[in-house]
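Cross-check.
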Amino acid sequence: MRIGIISILLFLSSTILLSLTVPAWGHRDRALGKSFIALCLSIAIYNLGYGMELASANLTTLIVWSKFQYLGIPFIPTFFFLFAANYTGIRDRIPLPLVFYLVGFPCITMVLHLTQEHHNLMYINPTIHRVWNMSFLAFDKGLWYKISRWHVAVIISAGAILFLRFFLQSVAVFRRQSILILIGALFPWAGWLVYMLDILPSGFDPTPFALFLASLFLASALLRYRLFDVSPIAKEQVFESIDTGVLVLDSEKRLVDYNHAASLVFSALTKEKKGVYGEDLFKNITSGNRLFEESDSGDVSVDIQIASGDSLRHYWARRSSIRTPKGRVLGSLILLDDITNRVRLLEKMETLASKDPLTGISNRRHLSSFGEKEVVRALHYGTNLALIMFDLDLFKKVNDTYGHDVGDQLLIHIVEIARGLVREADLLGRYGGEEFVILLPQTSLSDAQLIAERIRSSIEISPLLLESGTSIPITASFGVTSSFGSSDFSFESLCKKADEALYRAKAEGRNQVVTFLGTDNE
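Predicted model, tokenized:
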């Protein structure tokens, strides 16, 4: 036995292949893991047997190792194709007859080779041939050997085509791992072609080395990118099916890919748009430019609004860096979460918290909050702030006579009258029961008094008409005050003054407007 450098390389490759099955063993419950382990074991058997064949000193030993190789050789194309099918996600679409063929053909080939001396369907007239101080098995090719070699070509090519098609269809975010797989898939086919063309010395088979290189590329893609955990086709399906819009940018912030959800956000996105700068996509979007501000962590998030038809959609946009395991920045991802429903729900909750449920105007809580802000504004700018408080006269009598439902209708009716007579800047709110407040920024006492009088007279001449035809007259009493002449006041103090004036209006006969006289108002 003469063990040369080629045999040593084959033994080494066999050892490496066996070692690759160790990390894959933890994923043996997955179809991708099973097919990879089986492929590595088959190639390891082939390489070990071929290394021993090259080192054999006589024909008998050489034939023994040749038979050993065929415990692995016939199954390599099958496991390679199954690996490709599992990787690209078509495993479940393989018809049952093809499965039987993929399993049955290598079994027949193995049996025929082990029983070669009885039928000569594989090797005819085997002899020993020495080249480069190595021993090769020289023979005439039997019928089944010729068939099996073309079987190898077809199945290996089919697997390579699956990888090529996946590479061409894969999105950029998966392109780096798929190109490793594709390169690995081309090695077995290239090795078979070199062997069939007899480019190398007669009898020398480069296929074991080609398969070994292929397994290294496959292992690199699988282990480096953790493709055993979730196959790339599954990752791509997730990428395309998730509701979150995803934009993939390169290191220059140019668009290289996007998913279906992103195309719904940006209707103008097309394949031709790839290469456009991310800033250009967001340049007409409020706060969109903030996404591209630099940060220490590389991550930026901002709420944005994007027009969609006649409405605005709200998104939480996040940009995060894509880095290699060593920290080198490859690009960035922009994730667009549609939070429109959440925003509208919050707006609805805020409305419910600030609006009177019966009349739809501000409730007392919102009146107080808004009023204090207007007080701060008036004190800061030295402007006047007026307040009107009015109360329906003899409202209890309406409830007692017609019922609370009619009383509610009357309150709504009064609010509609008042709404039509206040300015957009004014705030109308229900202070409690049948009592209402109008806050009037930058308004003098005399102007507030005129507004109050218009509302009072409109209420007086606008009775509530019921469906039954009954007309219910109603009047209201008004108290008016303002901050003029006061350097220190609050919303609460204005309400107290207006309430005092309202009390006087009630005491003096109702259905009138009275101003607060406790200070020097204009």
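The CA atoms of residues 504 and 514 lie 7 Å apart. The chain is about 50% helix and 20% strand. Passed to J.P. for a second look.
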